[in-house]
Each structure stands twice: as structure tokens, then as C-alpha cells.
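Quick one - first record:
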Amino acid sequence: MYTFKPFVFTKHKANGPERPPKARSGHRIACDHRNLYSYGGFNPCVADTDPDMRDDQTWFASKPLFKELWRFNLVSERWKRLPGQENMPNELASNAMILCGNALMVYGGTGVPFGESCSNQLYVCNVDDGAMKVVPATGELPEPQYGQALVCHDSYLYTVGGTTGYEYTCDIHRFDLRKGVWEIVYICSGRDESEPRGRYRHELAFDGKMIYVLGGGTSTESYGFAEIPAFDLKTNKWRTLNTHGDTDTMVPAPRRCHGSVQYTDEKSGVTSVVISGGYNGDWVFSDVWRLNLNTLQWTRLRECILPCPVYFHSAALTPEGRMYIFGGIVKINNKIQRTNAVHSAWLTIPKLSEICWQALNYYFPHLKDSSPDKLLHMGIPLKFVQKFDFYDW
């Protein structure tokens, strides 16, 4: 019997004729109401004799990095590799990525060896056809780095932090999407004691006024969550915010390479951010935490535990409130390996119509093989029929 269960992870088994993506880490994902999109990634353990890859000329030119953009339909659970790799950069690990409409914006990243070749170019990819192009840019470009994080606000794209592989920053630059011009917002120089330490593989939250920096670290250090650096866009100043622990005074352990998503409650207007997994140099985490940005209260989602400890994965949230996690480095029976698993958990209670749609697909899994006309004739609302990727057939 179908039961809607929030905060419980479900594993998604890939369907369809196309092979799924290989296991990877250092990639980035994004979600809309219909698909999950995965860009780039790294896996040095794929054998040259792998039958799935031995005829893939793109892989042989880019290995151990994946010059790939994949689309995973959330209803049919079918993977589709999109064309357009000829215009992708060679820096394919630890990029920063954000989805705006049907435009996937990819910034920064590194090739291999890590840090030897870094990027400061912005790419835009059309998720409908995979077409990718460089965005022309002038102004004061940031230094080429990887492990940055992005926020999009008004017509600006903000990038925070990152590393060259040797030096770590928490500088802020922004790109005017209308004019194609980079501007310096804040360079951390030590003039203010609230300036955060340089870092990479952190995550950002944003409430419309302040950018919150969550965790991250260096190759030898991970930063914590009891105090959070926040940058006020109105005053152009850093602040250090003290957060409040869970009922047992706990906050998340320091970590880097974790996942992060955020959502805003429609009724209360409260924005919350949810972090998952991560790594501190010794320990791989499987816990999931939520931070209320209004009260700065941490809550450990004790019933919401990742299937196994994971880091260098990527997380994204659908507009309906379902968090998806793909790939990463997992720890199973004290062994470390990369994965290509897709898991999801509901973080909010969606509309009843969405729950009904989930139940319908549970009881009638063959719906994914029906034509749009047949689905509409059955009486299924158009907005749900449009969740399928029929052009992948």
C-alpha cells in the first residue's frame, strides 16, 4: 500500500534502454519540476576495458573527468545523456552550478591534476537540448578557482570563495547578467574581524538580504556551524552569526563537501536550509540537518538519515519540496567507493494532488510507457502529463 512518508529516503532504480551515468564525485546537480540534471564529475577508477566506455571517444579525451550533461526524468526514472559536450570546458570537477528557468549556469571548476587548470568562465547550457556556450564577460574577473558556490539575486550572479588548489579565499564577486560585466563586491584582506577564513566546497543559503556561508574548508581543515559567516548585501559587510543548537545543544559537526538545499514556507515565509552528508578529513557523515534562517535554530532530522555516509555528492530540491541526492563517495563497510545511486526524500508536505500523483505512479508503474494523448484521455491533468520527457522516446 502506498504511504506518503516525509523525511524517508527512497532509492530510484534507473529505467529505460540507455545506460545510467557512471559512478562519480565532484559533479553538480540541479532539479526542476520534471528532471534532475547532472554536470561533470570525476572517477579515476573506471577501467579502460569498461564495456560501456571503451567506444566513448569523449571519455577517452577527458578521463578521469566526465565531459557530460545528463538528464534524469523524475517520473519515468530514465536517464538521457544530452549532446553538446564539444562546447564543454575541460574543467569538470567542483564547479559551481545553478538553474534559472531552463538555463543551467556553470561557473569555475578544475581539471586534473586538481588546481593545475582552473576556470573563471561562466557557461550557460540549455537543458532542453544540451546546447552550451561561453558567456562573454568583461570587468574585474575573479581569479580562476574551483569549489566556489553561487547565488543568483535580481540580475546578478554572486560567487563566493573557492581555491586555486593552493590558496583559499572567501572573496565575493558578482556578474551582471544584463551587461556581462564582473564586479568586485568584497575582497577579504583582514581589515574586518568578521571576515571568514578562505574555503572551498562550502554551501550557501540566501534569504533575499544576506548570503550565509555553510561549512567548507581546506585540504586539511573543515569549518563548523555554531557560528556562521553571513554577508549583508545592503551594507556590504560580513557578520558572524551565532546559531542555536538542537534540543541537546547540538549543531552539525564541522564538514566540507556536503550537500545543501533550501526552501521557503509559503505560509510563514520562513526560509530553511538543509545540509546532508559531508566529510571532515576523518569522518564521513550520513546525517541531515535543517537550519531556520529566521531563528538560526538547527534541527537534526533524526528520522532522515542518508542510506550510507557520503561526501562529494550533490543535492538539489524540486519546486514541490523533494530533495534528490546523486553520486558521491560513499563509505560502506569501512570501504570507500564512488556511487551512481539516486536517492530522494520529501522535506515538505506537498499539495494533495502531488501526493495523489505519487500514489498513481506507485500503483500503475506502466503509466510512464503511455503516450501523452492516452494519459490525457485517462483524465490525468496536463500539468502532470508534462512531467514526462516524451521527447526522449
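second record:
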Amino acid sequence: MLIFHDYPVQGALFDMDGTMFDTERLRFQTLKQASEELIGQEFSDDYLMQCLGLSARTAEELAKKFYGEDVPYAQIRKRADELELESVRMNGVPIKKGLIQVLERLRKSGLRMAVATSSRRAIAEEYLINANVYKFFDLLVCGDEVERGKPHPEIFLKAAQKLNLQPQQCLMFEDSENGICSASDAGGITILFKDIKEPNDRMLSKAKFYYQDMYEFLNALDEYTPEIGMPHLQEPFPQSLNQLTVGIHGFGAIGGGYIAQILSHWDGYTRPKRMLASTRNRLYLESVNSFGSYSIRYGQSSYDERIENLSVIDADNEQQMLEMYMQSSLIALCLPEQAIASEAKIIAKGLLARFMSQDMQNNEPITFLIILNKVCAKYLVLKNIREALLEITDEDIAEHILSEHYFCDTVVNRMVSKLTDQALYRQLNIKHRLFKQYQSDLNDETIELSDETALTEKQEQQITNCLEDMRGQFQAGQFLQNMDLILFHSETDMPIYVENRSPLLSKMRQMILVDQISDIQIIKNRLWNGCHAMLAWYASTIGHEMIGIAMADSKIKKYAEQVVDEVKLGLVNIVPNQAKELDRMAESFLNSCRSAYKDPCERVARDPLRKLNFNERVFGSIENHIHQQLPYQNLLKGAVYGYVYALKNLNLDGEEVTQHLHKNIAQMDITDSQKKVLSGLVVQGIQNELKETGIQFDFLSLELNPEYA
């Protein structure tokens, strides 16, 4: 049972045309075409508007008043049905946005559900099956099954009775005047949606609640339906698909191995009907699209999670990229920092194309998730998109476009790695051999049908022919789908932190919405990214290849724990309101490192000089500790190992490293004497570590480089 605005609700009765499906406009077109064909005159808008919600019998009586007793209404209606079915079978049923989410929530709230439609049963069943929503309803009551059509209450009374409920226990959903009068007179809890025409005073007086669309009702329903918490790792994704398309711009480790999972869990009730993900990696593109799915492997739990309903598109195919930006309600930008400037050009083209489109569905804003390992990454992204827009349109349009959409910073709290091309190549070869073996084992036995309900001989032959036609193609595809294609290895931490800016995100099950996302970004940058890099530099210089294996070394394990505690100590006063998240992320980081057996130290240690910039993850923490007069010996050790890694493992030029160290210590916001002490400690540490390597490192005094001060 559901309590909705103090009404105890046990059932939900839905009108079909105009309420669930956007078919009234289509119906107008087909009736006009059919009447033109049969009587040489189109039915008028006035007549058609008065027909909204009427049964066929009542609509025929009205037609005779408009067009005379001899009007062949039955033939016109039959021809209109044919035209409408042709359109639906070719293009699908136009579903009202938000319908699937509403149906799923009501069903999971334990309500009994029925359709009460003026349409004939044959039409109603085809539409409900075509739209894949028949599964939500216990029964149908149709226009050809009642004596008196809407506005008489018979159809709603009959539907409630069949559900063994009283009308006052049922939500009754309608869009037309005749329909809302029927529901109101039946005694239901009436809910009116706007469809073709604005509701008049009579309609509003009959409705207990009025909503512009399904989404507005869905927002109201949120307050009265149970909130589904964070999913556990092996929890299946929702089966029902909503009407949304979402995009992942950058099908890399985070995009494919993390964001795709978050989008698949969605709100816990439904998931997007389509996910599009872009890549330039041909092997990944062709593999996923051939298999129809791929899997993320969680080694800690020995669990493979399959991601379905995702199509990979070519990032170099401008048309495909524009379509992603035209169709998507949410797009995750999973791009490295160095790619933002170049990718901003296609983002700008996509946003401009969406702006210029006359398609009504493109009026909704895109929610952008900025998945970039950088504090305040949103401003970098916006800057580059703005510059790209100004190259193709004027400033007013550019600013208008940017103001239309939601740009949300995020903090990713999970380590993910993708398979190398070589590893994927080996996996595909093995599975190809299995597939060829499967094909050679197929036999040509016919399928025997067995059903409790007897079929006629003709029906049996028809269904046998259909199955035979599909079997050859279906079985091979099914075999491919049953073979997991492992593309990513991931840690098990579930949440992602997201800036609370878009109403769409409030329903997302796996997101923790944060008003001050910069607090979480600082924690992630200093505690997670900084400690991760320092750990990898240290582990690499003493010969470890994988983070997880390195953590079995007592020296590495002890250092990791000490540097995490040290960084936490410095962050307490910077983000005083995030103590809970600080502890959670610290524990999560250490747990992730302990099990990161497939996370190469080389990957984590890459680009050390960028990570050692004065305002970045390591020196940023050191500067903070100096300000607070806190110990920083473990941070200092991490900085030393970063430079040693650059010299020893990457063979960077000693002069380049020297210049970097000069420049970044000089720019720190500490006193000159503190700079000298810090520089002396770093240099001494580097020289001590390099003693036995034969690498020379001569650090020039800061006093000789006043241009850096």
C-alpha cells in the first residue's frame, strides 16, 4: 500500500491514449486522413477535440451530429486504426516521458494496476505490448467491453471491481475532460495530466491533483515511495528501461568500468533505454558491439558484472558524436585533462546542434558529469567549451547554450583499470575458438513446442516457421552474449560524489550529492591521489610492479598507513565538516591498495613532475602542514621518491628535474627561510637515494634563481 497525500492507495488505474502514450496527435492525423479518403472531407479539430476520451460508440453518435446520419463512421475508424497501426509498427508507440519510472515505482510500492481505456482491446493490447509496459498491469478494461463509455464512470468502476478494490482506494490517471469526469464520478483519487489542450475549469475541479507531465508527478511521488539506498555490489540492475538515452564521452577505465555501472543502477527502479559510449580504440569498439555486452571484474569478490544496453561509437565519427549530444539527457565526460581542449570542439558542435534543433525532446538540459581528477575541473571544461563555441557561433548564443545545461563536478572513489589491447586480443582469440567449436556442434533438430494452452494446427505451424526463421541467427548471438567479455578490473567501492546542481541527479541511487564538492575534491586530491602517487613512486623504486603486491611488503604497508594518517591530520582543519567522509575515504583507499593486484605501479606513478607541482597533491599538502606547523616527514619522503622515480625510472634529464624543483618550491606560499629548509631536505633526500645509482643530481640554490621567487 502507498500513502499519497494522506490517501491510502492500493490500486492505480490508467487511461491509455494521451495519458500513457502520446497517441492523441497521431490519432487526429489518421482520422483526418481516413475521413478524407472515405467522405472527401477531413474531420474537424473541433469534432476531434470533443471526441477525446469518448468510447467508439459515443464518438460515432457525435460524428452523426457533425456530419449527418449517413457518415460511415465504422469504416473511417477502421481505416484510421489501420493507418495508426502502420505508424506504430513502423515507428513504435510514442510513450510519454517518465511513464516507465512511474509504473515501476507504483508497482514496487505494491499497488494493483489496471488499464481503463476507451480503445478496443485488440488495439490496447498491441500498444501495451509494443511499448513493453503490459507487464506492469494486472488487467485491462477496454472501450468495447463496457455498455457506457466515458464520461460515464462504468469503465473505472469495472476496473476497480476486477482488482477487488473500492474506487476510493485507487489512483485514477487521465488527460481528457471526459476521462477525468469518468474517474471523478467513479469516486477515485483523480490525477490529471495535460495533453493536447489546456485543462478547463471543469477538468481542474474534477481532479484532486494536476500535473503538467509524468515527471512532475514522479517528483511528487518521490516523497511517498521508499528511497532505495546504495546498491550492494552483486545486486542486479533494474529490469525495466526508462525512455532516457545517456552518453559516456570517453570509454576508458572510469567511463566503462565505473560510470556505466552507476548509470545502469540509475534510480533502482529503472535504467536508461540506451547508453552510448565513445572511444578511438577500434578493438574495444568492435568487441563490445559484437558481443552486445561486456563485463567488469571485481577481483576482491570474484564477481563479474555484465553491462548491457551499451553501444560503443567511434569518437572520430562526427555524426555519431553529434547524435549522442542530440539524444542524451546525461553525459559523463570521462576525459584526461590534456584531451579537454581538443574534445571541447566536438562538445561545442553537439551543443550547438542541439540548440538549433526544432525537436522538442532536445529542449531539456543535459546534465554533465565532469569525471576529471582535478579540483574545480568544471571551470576548465567550461572555459574550453566556451572558447570552442565562440569559434562557431556568436557570444550571446554561446553563453545561452552554456547556461541551459548543468555542469557538475564529481569525485570518483574507486580504482579501475582496463585490459591492455594484448590482454583483450588473447581473450578474444580464446573465445573465438570456443565459438567455432560451438558452431560445429550445432545440430538441425526442429524445436518441439509444448504449451499448457492448446494451439490449433495452423498456429503450431506458424510459430514453428517463425522460430525456425529466427533460430539460426538467434542461437549464435545468444552464445556470444553468454560469454563474458572482461574489459575492466575494478575495486568494489560503490559511491561517486557529485555536485548537487541538477534535479536529474536526485534520483540516482549510487550518487552521494554534495553541496560543497570542492571539500571532497581536496580530500580526494590530497588523501587519495597524493598518497597513491607517493606509494607508487616508493614501490617502483624498490622494484615492485603491482600496488597490491607492494602492500605485502611491510615497509610499503607501514609507509602507506603513516602517510595517510599524516595527510588526514592536515586536512582536518581545511574541511572541518567532512570528518566522516575523510575517515571513509582513508579506509577505502587503504583497502583498495591492499587488493590492487592488477593495478600497475607504473600506471599510478606516471607523470611525476605534474603531480609534484607546487599547488598539487604532494607539495600542496606539505605547504598546508608547514602553515599548521604539523609534521610532514612522510610527505617529504613521498616528494623525494617522486623525483627519484623521474630520474631513475623515467630517465628524465637532471637539469629538467632541477628546474622543476626550483620553480615549484619558489612558488609555495611559505617564507623564504621555510623554502630553504624544505629545498635542503628534498635535495638531501634525493641525493641519499641516488648514491648507489651513479646518477648525478646537483641542486642550485634558490637564491641564484630570483625569477622563480
